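Quick one, tokens below. Sequence please?
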């Protein structure tokens, strides 16, 4: 270690080499002793758990008492029905001043018509106010916080939520709290992350204007509830569900707090609230269901369910039954299409991400896909798959964006689908067929996992620029010193790597590139219809994985969340997983030098790209994120060098020609010129900017807001600060 310190000093003095000290310790989610066991070790180990050790419930186990967090009466199983007729919502045609939906509009463009802030004056931005939500880890609580919140603004209200789902209305000019609804979410209900990405503004079709709950704020919670409150005073809407709440654990079967949760705002499509849920990765094959459901936005009444393994049964499960366990779940923000009567559902894998032998054909057909569900019936109308038989955790985390794509016979209703692979698919919303060509290309199939063959081909979007780099080579291995580079080259050699889609291995580690935090994740993209510019920030972070047999998994202490021996401080959705009920566990780490916490591949580790959607050509692209808060051993360099860091959170584009984005591990909010990509302005936030910003106008002034909540996985500082900027008043 002393020699390494001397080498670091020499690097600092040399100056230039430090440009690449990006500190992907931001991806350090497992202790170094939990690294993949290495060649020949995945099947070592004897004994395993004793017979008396907790083995978990059977797939047919009933739901235990206490899982229903608010003790909401279930009532008898409901049959399918249709939603109350709805009125047009704010997100369908947003007012010029407002940001009424998570993605600004129902199309999820993250594009604003405001133009008061321009490339010429953005450098004058200053803080208008900072609001503290009050939600941070308490004494003795493991840091699982990452608020990820994008506020919405409608009229005289700025509406947001805390990381533990309290709903809040603020004065848009001062940040003064107008009201606050305490959601009562407990620490035990936090899954992988304490996050609330946003709330939903809903206008009633049955309650007259001026009466309570004509306008409502809707949210989904970490403990699986839907809540509706009056937008004017924050009081529960008594006519919705059970005194303002709906229990989403009904029909889910056995679970424990934190196993299944909701972090994304549910869309309302033609009067139907559509719900999905995050099911904690890596726990067990028979995890809670990934069922998608519809509820009446007026009353909370159950409408329908889409359950992958019981696709023709759209009612709630009969007494003593539950939705199919372990089916692909959807945790990303969905997009609703009122015109087509569809909701576009980004799906993930069946439970046990890295082993597919126990999945049904129905599950394999819809995993890592966009599934377009009819919001009247709950039946899929079409499916487009982005990765076949996915065992790389390539679930779709991005919200799809709806655009009008120019075609030979006029505009085509299209859907932009970003992926962790860096592949961006452009589909026809009516039938799911690619508008821009997609090729099935050969993929590696060589694996030592018995009975789990891989798909011989995988889909590639060949007309859209790829948000990524070519396959890794040994010569790409990088280090702060020759010793570090040698270490990484040896690590590369001892792993299996056949390029993208390298199949899982037991006998040795395999390199997963892009990694599960690669490409585009939950921040998605921003699209300006007037200019045709698509903005995307993305990651370049390979992972180092290895399957281990059950005895080795037991020896490593890999336990699912419902095991009495589970350690909540040991991680959750990312990294190592027990994958109980299967023959294997999984060990996952960043592909890094574990001594310096530096990635082994050469930088950049994050980038931002502008694409002209009229030509599908890159307008500009450069590394995204600086070295100021990043460095070896997790130490900041304090050097404002743009080297590209891991990033989470999306961009916003404005008619003023400015792109705003936080996301990076340098704890900055950035402003770029949309035409040239030049960075125009930045500010140091009180916590990590792992959230998508938004912009609104109030009383003639444009504001830019970002939740600087930080992120435990990205290892950025956790904060409860919502930071809002504006230009200074003219004098």
């Amino acid at each position: 270690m002393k020699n390494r310190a001397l080498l670091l000093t020499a690097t600092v003095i040399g100056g230039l080499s430090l440009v690449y000290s990006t500190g992907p310790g931001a991806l350090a989610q497992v202790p170094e002793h939990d690294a993949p066991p290495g060649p020949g070790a995945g099947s070592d180990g004897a004994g395993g758990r004793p017979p008396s050790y907790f083995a978990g419930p059977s797939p047919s186990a009933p739901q235990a008492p206490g899982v229903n967090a608010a003790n909401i009466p279930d009532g008898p199983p409901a049959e399918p029905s249709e939603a109350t007729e709805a009125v047009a919502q704010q997100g369908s045609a947003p007012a010029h001043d407002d940001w009424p939906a998570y993605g600004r509009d129902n199309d999820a463009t993250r594009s604003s018509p405001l133009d008061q802030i321009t490339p010429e004056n953005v450098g004058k931005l200053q803080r208008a106010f900072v609001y503290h939500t009050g939600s941070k880890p308490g004494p003795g609580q493991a840091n699982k916080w990452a608020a990820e919140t994008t506020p919405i603004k409608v009229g005289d209200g700025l509406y947001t939520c805390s990381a533990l789902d309290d709903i809040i209305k603020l004065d848009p000019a001062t940040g003064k709290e107008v009201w606050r609804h305490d959601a009562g979410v407990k620490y035990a209900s936090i899954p992988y992350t304490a996050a609330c990405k946003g709330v939903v503004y809903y206008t009633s079709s049955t309650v007259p204007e001026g009466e309570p709950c004509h306008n409502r704020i809707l949210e989904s919670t970490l403990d699986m509830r839907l809540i509706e409150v009056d937008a004017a005073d924050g009081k529960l809407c008594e006519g919705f569900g059970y005194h303002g709440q709906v229990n989403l654990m009904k029909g889910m079967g056995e679970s424990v707090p934190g196993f299944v949760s909701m972090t994304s705002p549910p869309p309302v499509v033609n009067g139907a609230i559509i719900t999905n849920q995050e099911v904690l990765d890596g726990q067990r094959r028979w995890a809670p269901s990934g069922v998608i459901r519809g509820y009446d936005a007026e009353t909370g009444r159950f409408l329908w369910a889409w359950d992958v393994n019981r696709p023709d049964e759209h009612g709630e499960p009969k007494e003593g039954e539950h939705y199919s366990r372990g089916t692909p779940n959807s945790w990303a923000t969905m997009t609703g299409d009122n015109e087509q009567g569809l909701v576009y559902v980004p799906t993930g894998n069946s439970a046990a991400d890295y082993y597919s032998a126990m999945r049904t054909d129905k599950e394999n057909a819809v995993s890592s896909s966009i599934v377009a569900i009819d919001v009247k019936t709950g039946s899929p109308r079409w499916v487009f798959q982005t990765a076949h038989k996915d065992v790389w955790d390539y679930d779709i985390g991005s919200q799809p964006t709806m655009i009008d794509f120019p075609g030979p016979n006029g505009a085509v209703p299209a859907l932009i689908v970003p992926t962790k692979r860096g592949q961006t698919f452009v589909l026809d919303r009516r039938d799911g067929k690619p508008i821009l060509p997609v090729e099935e290309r050969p993929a590696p199939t060589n694996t030592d996992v018995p009975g789990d063959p891989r798909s011989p081909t995988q889909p590639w979007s060949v007309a859209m620029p790829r948000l990524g780099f070519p396959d890794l080579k040994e010569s790409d291995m990088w280090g702060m010193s020759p010793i570090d580079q040698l270490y990484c080259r040896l690590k590369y050699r001892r792993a299996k790597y056949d390029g993208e889609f390298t199949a899982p291995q037991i006998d040795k580690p395999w390199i997963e590139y892009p990694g599960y935090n690669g490409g585009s994740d939950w921040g998605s993209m921003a699209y300006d219809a007037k200019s045709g510019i698509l903005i995307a920030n993305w990651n370049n972070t390979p992972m180092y994985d290895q399957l281990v047999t059950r005895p080795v998994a037991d020896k490593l202490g890999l336990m699912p969340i419902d095991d009495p021996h589970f350690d909540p401080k040991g991680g959750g959705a990312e990294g190592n997983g027990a994958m109980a009920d299967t023959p294997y566990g999984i060990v996952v780490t960043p592909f890094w030098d574990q001594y310096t916490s530096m990635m082994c591949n050469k930088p950049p580790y994050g980038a931002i790209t502008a694409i002209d959607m009229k030509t599908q050509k890159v307008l500009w692209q450069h590394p995204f994120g600086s070295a100021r808060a990043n460095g070896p051993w997790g130490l900041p360099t304090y050097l404002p060098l743009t080297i590209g860091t891991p990033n989470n959170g999306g961009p916003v584009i404005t008619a003023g020609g400015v792109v705003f984005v936080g996301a990076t591990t340098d704890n900055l909010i950035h402003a770029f010129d949309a035409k040239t990509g030049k960075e125009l302005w930045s500010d140091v936030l009180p916590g990590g900017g792992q959230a998508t910003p938004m912009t609104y106008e109030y009383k003639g002034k444009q504001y830019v807001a970002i939740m600087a909540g930080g992120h435990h996985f990205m290892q950025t500082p956790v904060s409860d600060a919502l930071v809002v900027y504006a230009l200074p008043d003219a004098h």
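Residues 1-33 have pLDDT under 50 and may be disordered. The longest strand covers residues 410-417.
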